[in-house]
């Protein structure tokens, strides 16, 4: 069994497990809802459409590595 991946909650900065169910990468349901509210309120947005050259550095990376936040 692998060691939990520890990160800081994107909202409150409390340290937690990235893959924690059911709220990971957030530390709580509250932080998860705050983040959703920011997306819905357009505080977060994708600034430009992704182009093929954005993915150029990841073409040869194994699939399992693409899911690891490091």
UniProtKB/TrEMBL annotation:
The keyword Transmembrane does not apply. One of its GO terms (molecular function) is zinc ion binding. Keywords: Metal-binding, Zinc. The keyword GTP-binding does not apply. Pfam families: YacG. It comes from the Bacteria. One of its GO terms (biological process) is regulation of DNA-templated transcription. HAMAP family: DNA_gyrase_inhibitor_YacG (MF_00649). This is DNA gyrase inhibitor YacG.
